[in-house]
Amino acid sequence: MPIPEIPGVKADKPLADQFRAEVAQLLGRKNLNFPGAQPVSFARKHLRELMEHDYYLCEKTDGIRCLLYFTNDGPQEIHYLIDRKNDYYYVPHLHFPRPEDPTFQAFHTGTIVDGELVYDQEADGLKLRYLVFDCLALDGKSQTDRQLDKRLAYFKELVMKPWSDLFVKKHPEERKFLPFELVFKEMSFPYVLSWMFDIKLPELKHGNDGLIFTCKETPYVFGTDEKILKWKPAHENTIDFRLRLGEFPPLIANGNSAGPPEPDYDAKPEFDLMIFHTKGDYRVFAQLHVTDEDWEIMKSINQQLDGRIIECYKDAQGNWRFKHDDAGKPHFRDDKNEANHISTVEKVLDSIDDAVSKTDLIRNEQRIREAFKKRQAERENRRKYEEAQAHRLREEKRKRESLSSDGAAHNGEPADKRIRPEA
């Protein structure tokens, strides 16, 4: 499935800077960089995490991650997609009605949702959709301090429902004029792993490269979030490097030329894989293993290679190889400004060395379910106990007030007048 390009018109720097400041203020941040949360790679220790805390499970969509910012220009609503590079793209012809307006004219502003653009394969062709999996701000109020389940509930009720009422129920014919359709990304219990692998993933209409577990008990975290767990099959557990081409071998002299030999641009150079340490500090991590066939593929795309971010995996022999896209070409991450940071690289390496397989996940499915159900039962028992305690306190208060009221009715009356005379 092809990876979509971000639709719309890229904002110039002054306008983008203005929006970055607006978004930071809306979210209560001083930092103007991309505010989106980033997952950590799933390691064996995270099996215990799933047994001790409540998580949502969803498929990891192979699309373009971006935030969607709802704002206004005077009386007109406007919308911008924000990519990982923190660039802003104006997307016209979007409308997100508010729930309280039966005319569907009122619209949301000061709203930021998190999601992924993806192509779905339908019978009549590819459909561009935006899959929402989180909500950072809603109508001028940051939601990041709320738990995930609360954030999603607000989004579904206040944004998704009125949008569906308008574009799915009342005027479905208008959807074809939208730049993309809005979809709420389905969240499941963390223990339905067999169903996810056997039924859900095979039925997907778009690309998928793993699973995402997101803790439902925690607030939204800007940057790396240790409570968002990214599981990938071994061959999908990758690192994004910056590719640096070394010198090309010299052309073999034929004995008739003078001067230094020219480089042979048809021959393979060295390929350095570099990782990000601090601003401006890139260091060589490993060499990219490139076969003759790989090199022919790299040359065939007729594009710049040096300096680009390339997604790589570690093969069974311990060599770093580039990941192929759907067309069989190197998967360059042009949606990213930087390669993975050393801290991310170390976590991915831990995940590779301590890999959790599909079989491992399914083997722990029942234990995750039992722990989840136990916490659920404990919460229900605690809720019932607290309700009973509250009821008891209300009854005690009512009785005290009743006794106090009876006493007040007899204020000033001699005690013997209140004593029932003996027969």
TrEMBL record:
- Any idea where this protein resides? Nucleus
UniProt domain mRNA capping enzyme C-terminal: residue ranges: 236-362
Q: Which CDD domains match?
A: Adenylation_mRNA_capping
- Superkingdom: Eukaryota
Keywords from UniProt, A to Z, are: GTP-binding, mRNA capping, mRNA processing, Nucleotide-binding, Nucleotidyltransferase, Nucleus, Transferase
Q: Which reaction does it catalyse?
A: a 5'-end diphospho-ribonucleoside in mRNA + GTP + H(+) = a 5'-end (5'-triphosphoguanosine)-ribonucleoside in mRNA + diphosphate
Could you say which EC number(s) this protein's record lists? 2.7.7.50
User: What terms describe the molecular function in GO for this protein?
Assistant: ATP binding; GTP binding; mRNA guanylyltransferase activity
Keyword Heme found: no
Q: Where is the composition biased (Basic and acidic residues)?
A: 377-403, 413-423
User: One biological-process term from Gene Ontology?
Assistant: 7-methylguanosine mRNA capping
Provide the family line.
Answer: Belongs to the eukaryotic GTase family.
UniProt subunit comment: Heterodimer. The mRNA-capping enzyme is composed of two separate chains alpha and beta, respectively a mRNA guanylyltransferase and an mRNA 5'-triphosphate monophosphatase.
What's this protein's function? Second step of mRNA capping. Transfer of the GMP moiety of GTP to the 5'-end of RNA via an enzyme-GMP covalent reaction intermediate.
Q: What is this protein called?
A: mRNA-capping enzyme subunit alpha
Q: Which organism is it from?
A: Botryosphaeria dothidea
